[in-house]
Fold these 4 entries.
Entry 1:
Amino acid sequence: MPERDFFLAAYDVADQRRRAAALKLARGYATGGQRSVHECFLTPAERGELLLNLSDVLDDRDDRFVLMRLDPRARIYTLGAALPTCDPPYFYFD
């Protein structure tokens, strides 16, 4: 099984139609998140695919996207009513 890294994907998209398309793409790779910030466990190939697909959707002049790799050794903190992540040892792919 390929090695996966933990990423936060966040975007700020000006146009509603592009925002909906970016949300759909990001959620396709996400295991959790809120609105425009998503938690993703990605292989290098999935990371490249996500970036390529988003580059087709987003406008360089008006939209912003960031994909940050997080340290897997870091402790998870939650605020408010959030729950700690609890992913199963498997993932379903369509």
Entry 2:
Amino acid sequence: MSTAAIPGNTQSNLRTAWLFGILWNLISTPLLFIIPGELERNHLAAIGFLFPVIGVGLLTWAVMTTLRWHRFGASRFEMGQATLGGQLSGTIHTRFNDVQSLRVTLKLTCLDRITRSSGENRDTRENILWREEYVVPEGQIGLGGMGASIPVRFAIPADARATTAVGRSDGIVWVLAAEANLPGVDFKEDFDVPVRRGESTGRVEPTRSDAFPPAREPISSADLAASGIHIAPTHEGTQYYFAAARNASFGSGITMFTLLWTGALWLQYTLDFPRIFIAIMAGFELLLVVVVLDSWFGTTTVTIGSDAVHRRHAILGVGSTRVIPRSSIKGLDLNISMQSTGRTGTPYYELRATLDTGRRTHLGQGIRNKRHAEWLAERMRSDIGL
């Protein structure tokens, strides 16, 4: 195999999925016998059932990963080049029986991997710094005796950060992911790709010029309205309204996590943990409840007038308004303000205004679609006069 052939991560994920799933279930299963007796004294004890439920979900994840491995085998990425200010190119080889009407989504992500240690506990997070994605054009995926060949080409920004992490160490990591919805088990694979500065990282494969990402359809106000973002003229100026519950998947995830946190808090209370630990947990509980309420019921209204920008954020109608003079806004760019868990998670963008004082403030956030965020940023710059 060529030194530029990068194996997919499914095999290593398979081991992790089974190990974590089995350990979680060994720890959480006894709760099924403890909780029924506690329900007579405290109905909140029912929250404890969430832990065995999550255990079932983890085992399901392990089974699905196993089925995916058996169906698609050991996928690999034959990398051509990957340089800052240049491009990532190459071909993904995997096992497909048919490529008719197959839609494969490719994602290239730059991550900052950070590990925090506290005693024997280690928590590793991979924060998304940049992402681009596109659907491979119809007819570009080849099928031969060795399986399917999926062409890859991404432009890489010159101001991005080069790979610094080695193995599982901290640092900058670049990940190429491929996904396709199929009958039965979906195709999902990701590859760690080394991106360097100003030099090729492998042999350059010849690729067709039409393998570049396809031209994108223009964004319209109707597209934004379908995602819960509405633009309308008012007597005060152009109004941008970011509706509540625009990101149901994120809201569901943070709600589930908050319920788990509540269950852990209840267990600490019933097991007579030191009150200081319970107080700290309760403080985080209040913060999580606010985030949950904001994800489901929070709205933002930004009105760009002739002299000032008014931004109002409210939860269930309760909120405050900030007035920002237009002349004080010196720039407007995109920033990833939050993300769902994992390297292939979803980044959510905010429109971040830079003021003449150097401080920054958002003019809308929680935007799931990067193209929508880019379109909004350009429209707002025009309205503000940047």
Entry 3:
Amino acid sequence: MGVSVKMTKVELRNVSNYILKNVSLTVDSGEFLVLLGPNGAGKTTLLNVIAGLTEYSGTVMLDGEPADSLPPHKRNIGYVPQNLALFPHLNAYDNVAYGLRVRGVPRRIINKRVREVMEILGIWGLRYKYPMRLSGGEGQKVAIARALVINPTILLLDEPFNNLQVDIRKSLRLEVREIQRKLGITTIFVTHDIEEAEELGNKVAVMKNGMLIGVGSYVDVLPKISSTIYKLNILKGRICERVDSWLTRMICGDLRLLVPYDGKSGDLNVTIAIPPDRILISRVRPDIAINAFKGKIHEVRDKQHYSEVLVNVNNVILTVYVTREKFESLGLDVNSEVYVKIPIRFIKVLS
């Protein structure tokens, strides 16, 4: 096919500018790196540095060679910005073909490459549609096709699914990951969504205030995520009993939990993370008692779109996020007795 499978290693060495502060980062050839952080952390600026679209000090290395003097069009990078930047006066085909045309590629080769990449993304049938007639997901695919058609060795995606419905986002995430695996393109994907980070990244880099504060697997950087963009319940305890090949009983203070753990059994210290929006809360005892506990509401904090409920369960304080609608329907308040249930599949063992 016409889309390149050449891979490029990206290295940033002590990169700084008006937002970034001495950032050093390596993205190996063919790797899928998720760049995670809150708004204003410097994620988009970091992409623009790699693409050569903004000024910086320090060094950007592409396959071991300094790229600082290379203009954007010489860096062989495909870039999907947040706003997609599709040309409204061009149909989907011409939007995808644009980068090849400005490079002076012959029409015959343009036709071949555009068809190939649009068929990979399943949008060849949309080639005559204009952006205003495309759905959100279709527009995203056209933008990705336009980035891929130039045969890039690096693909940069800046929160490409930010404004899409949850089910469409999930579907597109899977498609992008599969395409990246198939083509082997070194990819950096910016998001503030930890679910995207968990599903997509070989490696996750966490940013805050222009600084890189953690790099590693999703599980490795969960404590950093909890301190920056998404508060997690981080509990320390010990493994006390093997239940089966993948399930173990853990003691956190006076709380006894079943956790997914395939390590050694015995009196071992472990740390787990539980997302607050995955803990279920109710007034009645759950039918299935696994990881279900009775507790008392210790504090309620009103947020913009939800309530942050702190529940005392066996002298362990758990943070639970509850929608405003559910909070009101349950009639919750400080000192209300409630039941919480912690689904095993959402518990992450950190160490």
Entry 4:
Amino acid sequence: MKIVYVTQIVPYPPHGGVLQRGFNLLRELGRRHSVHLIAFHHPDELPYGETLRKSREELERFCDQVEYLPLWPKQSAAHKLAAFAFATAYPKPFSVLAHRSRRLSKKLRQLTSSGARADVVHLDTIALSPYRDDCGSVPVVLTHHNIESQLMERRAQVESTPLARWYVGLQARRLRAYEASESGRFSVNVMVSDTDAALLRSICPGARTAVIPNGVDVEYFVPRRDEESPAVIYTGGMNMFANRDAVDWFVDSIWPRVKSSVPEVRFLAVGQRPSARLLEVAASDDQIEVPGFVPDVRPWVARAAVYIVPLRVGGGTRLKMVDAMAQGKAIVATTVGAEGIHGDNGRHFVIADEPERFAAEVVRLIRDASVRRELGDAARARVEAEYGWPMLAERLAGVYESAIAGARP
């Protein structure tokens, strides 16, 4: 197949959920198909120079062509201010405005014309939906990494100021209306969980869906239990609101309870761009470690007895969950944190939504190595059976083939 794959961000380096998913699926698709990658470049995430050159070099190992486009609100401070000013009167979600690009429209019209016709176009987020109109009769598949409107609704509930709650709530309503009007226009909507697929069909009755969950490299992430210590760990870039909120909630409402029961416990908060507040808390508590970005998270996870996912905001499925499961970790998660994962509470991980219960489960698992091993073994077996990237990429290729077959006269 000739696949045109359009992403909202350069999927390299593969640190974090969307990047990790995109990188691994592209790598596996590129083994058997011709892939033309077009990605919006975020200079704050991927600086110009050697880092940017390295990303192109790595992606060209399995993509026949790689093109980067500027994301206009991030070109300068003035562009950013203009974007937010325009957004006040723009009736669609801000993310749609941010991804407007005449260059992308022109490129897609070229790639889907009769002369150099692609077999299928993959748009990797709802914000790219307008480009469906530039693809002519070529089938177009749209990925929803989560239900964006649900993500915003949950965020609005935990924002700290009335203005922020109002603005995020407004974006949530616009996204819900946009999902309802746009999703039915695509050959297939690729979802990351059965839960999200059902929710999208309730928002847009008749929308065609297929589930390709987030996966894991089961050869890269393996159990290393001999290194465990009485520590708990959370991993995730603190530049994302959901991760900041999760760590803040854990530190404020759960950590003191865990520490009072297990005085020697340590908390490892690993991820790029830790907030000033978290650094301040860590400076006054020598049992909290905040290393920031680490090039290899595996040694940090190996140190911890318990992996925590105290998310209150989110959607889709958590790559951090399947990564931790592959490493055979005992996991305590909120319902939101474990959402979309094929696993059973008490068998593959433990669910706890109240601070007291969450803390009690963490303490129980720190103290009981046999229960930790039982949970970790079951979690590892589950990801080996269901979440390997080669298998998931093969399923995605099958979705493309179905879309192509359905588009034939």
